[in-house]
Amino acid sequence: MAFLSTPDLRKLQDMVMAGDEISRAIAIGILTKAADGIADASLREQAFDRYATDEIEIDDEPATSPANNGTWVAAWVWIEQPDSDACATCRDAIEARLLPCDECGAQDEDE
After folding, report:
1. pLDDT 10s digits, 48-60
2. Measured between alpha carbons, how far is 72 from 64 in angstroms, rounded to an integer?
3. How far apart, in whole angstroms, are the C-alpha atoms of residue 6 and residue 13?
4. What is the per-residue pLDDT across 38-93, written as a single tens digit (0 to 9) for each?
5. In a 3-state reduction of DSSP, which class is residue 17?
6. Could you give the 3-state DSSP secondary structure of residue 72?
7. pTM, full prediction
8. Under DSSP, is residue 71 helix (H, G, I), strand (E, B) or coil?
């Protein structure tokens, strides 16, 4: 999956509509830049092997962003809806609770 920023998408549209050789070359450059953001199979496999769980999913063609000493690989993170009976503190918590809740005393079962 490749992503185009809104300004790049508008510029791409303008270049395609112009139809001349220079505009076509600019459009190809924009598309090439977007295609560079697609993970090669080995990056996807590395991310999947290291991080994929029932709560973290990696797309078949995730977006990527090169950085110093590595590459960011996009992932989906599952956030479960809070129990409707949970106290306000528990409903607002995103991370797993390691200690009992100060308000209601609940503690995550996984810990």
Report:
1. 999 999 889 988 8
2. 5
3. 11
4. 656 788 889 999 999 988 998 887 877 778 888 888 899 887 776 666 677 766 66
5. helix
6. strand
7. 0.46
8. strand
